[in-house]
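Input chain follows. Return structure tokens only.
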Amino acid sequence: MYFIFCLLCGFIFNGFILEEKCSFCLNLLVCNADDILNCDCQKVELLQETVDFLYMKTNHGCLCNSCLLKFDAWIKYSLAYEFVGNASVLRPEYFYIENGLYVFTPLYHLHKGKCCGNGCRHCVYRSKL
């Protein structure tokens, strides 16, 4: 078995099987975008708001089922709770402290509603490379 990795698009050719990386967690996945009804992602039920968010507000390519479920949970949370961007009243699920600095979570970035363009570690919007 041989592997060929394309540095431009991230595809891995594994013999005759085309594998791709999840555009959020970067784990390998097999995507059947050419036969979307038989793609593994079709097994996950998502809110329409999640689908809309992924298509309209992000630049993600294929996502693994685990990441699809994470995005769905974050969207459900954002629908249930009003976003308060004032740092003095941030919810604990919006950040953690690392080396004395605030690190904002993916939930915070999603709930904020747009990419700030600062290359944040947990940005959910994924700028085009």
